[in-house]
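Support request from a user on the community tier.

User writes: "When I paste my structure tokens into the form, the page sometimes reloads and wipes my input. The last time it worked, I copied everything first. Here is what I submitted, just in case something in the input itself triggers the reload:"
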């Protein structure tokens, strides 16, 4: 079967999260490997796909989708049989969307600001996420109360938030709180997560 989904991927990078999401979706897909070291992401053919020169980018039936959270949201909605989203028209959809936006709006900026601090601390009101500790506490509280962010249902939000929590703890940028360690352990038991990790290691070796 010819895949109608193509992931532009650099291994390892943020596009590894999209790789995991595609494994959860369960649809056939192709992978176009890019080397960030060689500058493949800044070459004209890829810039035609994503003018930002970033990975990942996903092409579905000729249409390019960029930005990791948008890709995960799109895939969850485009393939509802995978049950990775909360349907439009239900109140829980709002909470689900909150977590999807929380990742690029709060979690990532909080972690990056902690890793690369400013010469002078920014005022709390200037930061979209407020402060690092509050950001961590909000996530820890959510994952300590249920199996996943949306209770018993695993969603695209867990792919985004979970991957960043896992990555952040590996690189000592996020504290190894029990809530996070237990949450990540639940996620890494998922067959799709394990398949994606195995593929990513093979891509990196290639």
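"...and here is what came back when it finally went through:"
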């Amino acid at each position: 079967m010819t895949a109608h989904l193509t992931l532009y991927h650099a291994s390892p990078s943020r596009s590894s999260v999209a790789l995991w999401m595609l494994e959860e979706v369960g649809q056939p897909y192709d992978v176009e490997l890019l080397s960030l070291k060689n500058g493949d992401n800044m070459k004209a053919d890829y810039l035609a796909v994503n003018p930002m020169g970033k990975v990942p980018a996903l092409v579905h039936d000729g249409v390019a989708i960029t930005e990791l959270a948008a890709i995960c949201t799109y895939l969850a909605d485009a393939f509802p049989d995978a049950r990775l989203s909360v349907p439009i028209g239900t109140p829980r959809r709002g909470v689900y969307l909150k977590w999807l936006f929380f990742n690029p709006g709060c979690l990532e900026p909080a972690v990056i600001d902690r890793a690369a601090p400013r010469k002078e601390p920014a005022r709390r009101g200037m930061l979209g996420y407020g402060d690092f500790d509050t950001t961590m506490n909000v996530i820890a509280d959510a994952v300590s109360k249920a199996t996943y962010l949306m209770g018993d249902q695993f969603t695209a939000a867990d792919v985004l938030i979970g991957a960043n929590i896992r990555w952040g703890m590996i690189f000592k940028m996020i504290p190894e709180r029990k809530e996070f360690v237990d949450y990540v352990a639940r996620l890494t038991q998922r067959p799709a997560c394990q398949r994606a990790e195995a593929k990513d290691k093979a891509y990196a070796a290639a």
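Agent notes: The reload is a front-end session timeout and is unrelated to the input. The helical segments are 15-25, 44-47, 68-78, 92-115, 132-145, 156-170, 178-188, 191-205. Residues 92-115 form the longest helix (24 residues). Escalated to web team.
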